[in-house]
Amino acid sequence: MNRKNFLQSAAVLAAATGFPATGKAFNTGDNYRPVHIPPYLKKGDLIGITSPAGYLKVEDIQSALAGLKEWGYETRVGDTIGRRDYSFGGTDEERLADFQRMLDDPSLKAILCARGGYGAVRIIDRLDWKAFRKHPKWIIGFSDITVFHSHLNRVINVASIHSKMCSGFPEDWSKAEQIQVDTILSLKKAIEGEQMNYAFAAAEGNKSGVAEGILVGGNLRTLETLTGSASDIHTDGKILFVEDVGEYLYSIDRMFWNLDRSGKLAKLKGLVVGGFRVKPPSDPEEEFGRTIQQIVLEKTGKYKFPVCFDFPVGHQKNNFALKCGVRHRLEVKDGLCSLTEIR
Question: How far apart are CA 80 and CA 51, in angstroms?
């Protein structure tokens, strides 16, 4: 394709998606829809902080505000911080309005969700994404924020960042554990556009192989609850990562059966299994008798894609930032695994 035809095609694509032709995009393999990469941040940019799900006190975000200021960013604290409606960061209407304002505000370059918990699914269908499509920005968080990551991937076609949130910032960097510092600095690298590259020792049960594809995923329970909805994640031709906390082994088994029976494993390129903190049964007679590795390998054994376990992501200290919707290369081999952003 010559330059003239390429530019004409880019203009047509931009008109179809509502995104500017100058934005970077990747082919997702999902009916050839492009994933738009929001502009990376530079010093002086403005970051909004909001609670679209669980409740968080004002004092609980102070370390995050100080950390972002140290990095050179301005912050705007949303109305939901400090508000409470039982376990929620305000009523549905308050959380909806706060998040909508941040989606609509072109001066904001990123939205940092204060915490997870539960509540994003209660507002997702009422959000208006028109202004966001014109001025896309990074939406950051994990756990219940998986609702946004999945919706952005399936419906809006904009990349996002799965990472620690406000509570992950150390109060005193000089006294913080190195793993806490490293994981928070991985968020800084992600929002500033550094190429993400993780290499770690291979875990028991890994399936060797190499895969390339758009990275998608998040909290497994949340992904399961989105099955059949407009926000249901699309996995064909992609690398899927999953993590969870506080679930019984039988429940994790059920969720992986859901992935398989709903077709999400059939055309997958690779599977990244993060942290899974298992809830012990209250009755010893109810022991499930299978490990996470056995549960996963039972469902993936008929497929050829690589699988890696114990990836440093999830409800744990070693929860590193991942760019959802961005193309990655997964290599699983004897002794070593790596996940590298493709440029």
Answer: 6
CATH number for the domain that contains residue 261: 3.50.30.60
Q: Which residue has the tokens 């590795």?
A: 293
Q: Which residue do the tokens 């556009």 mark? A: 193
Report phi then psi at 118, rounded to 5: -155, 140
Residues 286 and 217 in one domain: yes
Number of domains in the chain: 2
Q: Rounded to an integer, what distance in angstroms lies between the CA atom of residue 176 and that of residue 174?
A: 6
pLDDT in tens, the chain (343 residues): 444 443 333 333 343 345 543 345 555 455 446 799 999 999 999 999 999 999 999 999 999 999 999 999 999 999 999 999 999 999 999 999 999 999 999 999 999 999 999 999 999 999 999 999 999 999 999 999 999 999 999 999 999 999 999 999 999 999 999 999 999 999 999 999 999 999 999 999 999 999 999 999 999 999 999 999 999 999 999 999 999 999 999 999 999 999 999 999 999 999 999 999 999 998 888 899 999 999 999 999 999 999 999 999 999 999 999 999 999 999 999 999 999 999 9
Last residue of one domain, picked from the residues 191, 213, 241: 191
